[in-house]
Design brief:
23 helices; alpha/beta; 788 residues; five-stranded antiparallel β-sheet
Amino acid sequence: MAPANTTRPGSAPQVLQLLIAEDNPDDLALTLRELAKSELNLQIVTVSTRPKFVEILNSRPIDIVLSDFRMVDWTGIDALTEIIKFGADIPLILVTGTLGDLKAVECMKLGITDYVLKHQLARLPMAILRAREEQALRQAQRQAADALRESEAHYRTLVENAPDAIVVLDVDQGCFIDCNNNALRLFRLDREYLLTRGPGELSPAFQPDGRHSIVATQLWAERASSNENTNFEWVHRNSMGVDVPCEVRVVPLKFPDRQIVRCSILDITERKRAEEEVRDSEARYRDLVNNANYGIYWVSPDGTLLDANPALVRMLDYDSIESLLAIGDIGVLFCDPTLRGQILASDGAADRTDVTVDWKRSDGKIITVRLIGRRARDPRRKTECAEVIVEEITERLALEKQVRQAQKFEAIGQLAGGIAHDFNNMIGAILGWAELGMDETDADARLHRHFDKVRHQAIRAAALTRQLLAFARRQILEPRDINLNQDVTETLSLLEKVLGSNIEIKTNLTPNLPVIRADPTQIEQVIMNLCINARDAMPEGGQLFIETGEVVLDEQQLAAQAHAKPGRYAMLAVTDTGTGMDAGTLDRIFEPFFTTKDIGKGTGLGLATVYGIVRQHGGFLHVYSELNVGTTFRMYLPLTVTAGKIEDLSEDVQPVRGGSELILIAEDHEGLRDLARETLEGLGYSVITANDGEAAVREFENHCDQIDLLLFDVVLPKMNGPKAYASISRLKPDIPVIFATGYSADISLLQEAQHQGLMVLQKPYDPRDLARRIRDTLDLQPARARHQ
């Protein structure tokens, strides 16, 4: 183990590793207290037995040992013996109650560094410091002796094994008096011959700087003799007549009556060759610049374009570098000429600049570029300039804009979806009570007509909430394998009168188009909204083109669509020859309640609905528009992996049937809860209600054997519907359930229920739909005794 180093001046206080051997707790406490009062930076380990002492000594570095003289079964002399066995120079200081002079002398002879009486513990810090100083002195003495013994051998070893050729020159006599083997190899001479020659004789007559070799040798030797460390390049000539470029370092050696210098000579033939290669690499650098994908140009401080690479020429649509340089002032490229001066000023003031600006190409097209510049030097003109790397970021900024727009729509969608979710419950109650009112009044009665008007307005309100939920991507989808061509054909047949006779409809539907997995009602809504939007853009009439197709899109083509994945897509394009839109309108067309129509002529939800439906189906939209030319909306929906059978969507027209079973309803909205109870009781059912999940579980526990079916809202206070059903299922596993929801975010709570094939009723529902679902679910259960 190496002894610890002493603290260097100006450095942080060194932590001394202190090992204390003491078996008397009171004496140990006194020692530790005295050490704590000192300014010594100590890390202390204490032991009381010899085995533990040996273990610590072997397991960690120790700088100082304090030991009691007499301990149970061992002594301080035993501690010294263990230190000697360990083979380390660790000072040991005895801390003892009494120690006579003779015993003290005997201990010192054995190797004890010092001793401190226990009633004089105040001198313990000083004893530790003195022990450390003596230890450092011993180390220095050993090191000096070792260095003295090994210096000559080391010197000879270093000289012989040095990578340089080393010679010792007697300046007065002008010849070498010693050398290493590398010097013999450098000059290709034997030792006897080399030691009779001087540097001037082993060099060409003149050095590359024009000075005579003998004169130059004398000059460098005199400078070295005056204690100047001299480093210079030299050309030696070996015995084969080959000139060897070298780097020479001359250092004076101290001799009392002679001028002696040592010369380290490094063969720099390879360095010279490397420098030549560097010059060649500059040519290769030019090739790299010319073949780079980024544009690069060099510009003078006054804005004159000095040079450019081919990538910049292509980026700006010029014919050649010469035609680009012919523009002269770089400011010609800037859409905002004032930015030219600011950028040139920043290039001159800072080591590096990074700005984004708009440039004009030679064909007039505007592109956005990122300019990364640094100060440089024109090697041909020997003047200051700026080197600028140009990255076109037009597409990237467009993608970032889409991401920001998507984030904005997401925030608006969350708000709209939350409002629509709450309205859904209220509208469902209004619609249901209106339905019940109509059922309980004569068709010719005035009150019946009033209920019918309430019902009609509720249906319109429900449609509005569905549009909001569609934009927010919170509606419940019922996806099926559908044929997009068939949907287009059927929707157009319904829209012919709505679109008007002054609009000519043309279709180009790709035959055998693969099916898509989508909600047919929602896709029909998209087609209708796009066609009606096109009609409104052509108030004087025009042409409406509808096209379908199959496309395969890769990552590059989807670069501007952050959420789309590469693959096969079904495409629907709706093009009109109407008024078109400007850039400001295009940025906002998918926002809910944004419309360019007159007040009262549009809700501003049509395109917002389209946007939400397409996004919820995993697709995306692309819009292109020109003022007074027209607009094209392209919808892309992912194709299904395998085609399935297109399902029959015919409506259920079976009559409403009642029953006598007991039904537990859990619904937190009072209006819907009362509506469901009224509807079912009117059909003969018995009903128990609860306004939260925990109450529903308690009611079931009280009527476990009598309840035949559960009607639970998905989102309930205290415990949601699926959790409440899970608790009830543990009591009665075969109990049937219908979950009611109008918000797609609830579907995550229904994943397990969906896997089990449980019934889901979409809000807002009318009383007839509720009654049919209840009866159908009950009829699917095994025959059993019913409540009468």
